[in-house]
Amino acid sequence: MFAAHKGIECLTMVSLCRWLPLGNYESIRSFLTLILALWLSVVDGIGSATAQSEKAESEISVFVDHSLLVAPEYPCTWPSAPFPRFQITHQRVIGPESAYNIDVLLIDGNTGTQLDVPPHSVARPELRRPKSGELGLAYTDKIEPWQFGGEACVVDVRELLDQESKGISPLVKRELVERFETKNRQLRFGDVVLFRSDYSDKYYLPLPDGNRFIADALDRKAPGFPDPDPDCMEFLATRGVMTLGTDSASMGPLPDLAEPTHYAGLKHGMIWTESATNLGTLPPMGAFYCMLGPKHQGSPYSEGRAFSIVGGPLPGRLIDSVKNKRAIDLSPTLAPNLPLTSPGIGTGAHRQVYLKVDFLYSDYLDMWHHTHLMDSMTGTHLVPPSYALPPEGSKPAYAPEVRGWLQQYEQKYGLRGASSMTTEQVPLDWTCGRARVIDVRSLVGSTEKKPLPVSPEITPTLIQEFERKHGALRLGDIVLFHTGHLDRQLRPQPNDSGVWTEPLQGKSEGWPAPGPEAIVYLKSKGIRCVATDAPDLGGVDPKRAQMTYWALGSREMVGVEFLHHLGKIPTDKESYFLFAAVKIRDCHGGPGRAIVLY
Predict the structure, then answer these.
(1) What are the beta bridge partners of residue 101?
(2) What residue ranges define each of the domains in the chain, with the CATH number in brackets?
(3) Tens digit of pLDDT for each residue in 355-378?
(4) pTM of the full structure
(5) What confidence tens digit (pLDDT) does each residue in 409-420 have?
(6) Dihedrals φ, ψ of 140, to 5°?
(7) Most buried of 76, 162, 504, 595, CB within 10 angstroms?
(8) What's 80's DSSP letter?
């Protein structure tokens, strides 16, 4: 994006980059520079465009997606039995029975671009086995948020691609890492070492061609994917590197070094990305890399979303934050005994509850590999425009009551519109930006004289009061409404009714939620993403909630719901919000994780 200069608002460059062919970093940077030069020539005249372009180019930050598309016809899951295949079920579509598009996911942590953490290979300490240790308890819900990011150090290993016999992985030796250090600098704590072979770029294809990605290598029909050997991992540990990534299908060399390589790194507390892609768009150093995934309780791995931020001062600021461990996790843990999805209003209106499904037992780790059956809006999640809007050209037959709401909405707020923007189409920079926390806890208890169920409404007036005290909202800001609801009410069964059930049934006041007027006002300020530490942005009144979601979708805005710990975000420091949903095609929700760096 362009940084703001003397009242000129930031422009979003990621939208342009969605149309760019995948290429190297310099080609993207050159394209952006050209656009800047043209724009500046209009603003200030051709004579001064070159100098201003050079200055503005140094401020450009571009988001780069490193995540594989998750879809049933792609080789997105580990193909060996009994690993379950990814499934998405469009359980309800907009029509007489539902005013929203609602999806259910069957998704394993080894799906698409994924995160590995120490318990993948390190046994729990109480088992007292040779590979036991405290890191055997460092599941995905226990990793500190600073470790998810750092400075991308891209080690080029393309010379190894397809250079072994069938079923054998070419090995990344420490000498290739040392070659990187000779050309750049010595690796250190805070770096994210990324092994670039272009394997996923070349072989992640729709099936059956996609069998080349994993299955053909396992069946010894094709060479294995390049990966580091155990000695390379030990060498990286001496450098203090805690986070890695590979664009191979796994960090485990075939046929027999997968576990030794995993353990060699994970025993030091490392975490890493597997099945990254598009690493060729990064410079050798200097970009900020991040991997975020759903916060599953007790999981040794997780599906996730990897991305980088390249250029301008932003990467340096974020790298400094993670190196100094200035990070806050805003996502509650996902566990079957927590109220993570809506029970709805009335029998049969509930969303799919979050289920952990065991499918393969590891004797050494005394642990079940597991998948999850879950609503796409489980825990911290994305709300894309297509959640509440029908696709272009469709004329949904709403229930009579909803048709009445729509008529009232359009008379007051304009046409509802349509959208096919599902999760995988939402630009990454829409859900990342300067954190602007608006404390609305003063609204709690303000509806005593109103009949329940009702939620206190967040109005434009309240937002304007925040701006008078803390400065105007601007394009690129992420607005986070601090209600305190989940901090107070999120409890395991049987004490879990305070999150959803009691407010929806009118037994207690609902959580504060923005009305459509607030959404319209935020759009006028250039806001693209609105987040909340409440269960959702709609509140407990179905009519008001519907209008809020229509307002979001029709203005091409997105939401992030089900956060907590917003009160921990420093108010005296510049804070940056990072959220990314798993890149699932045709998904009308999207589980993910949110953190703040400051």
Answers:
(1) none
(2) 14-60 (no CATH), 113-325 (3.50.30.50), 376-597 (3.50.30.50)
(3) 999 999 999 999 999 999 999 999
(4) 0.90
(5) 999 999 999 999
(6) -60, -30
(7) 76
(8) S
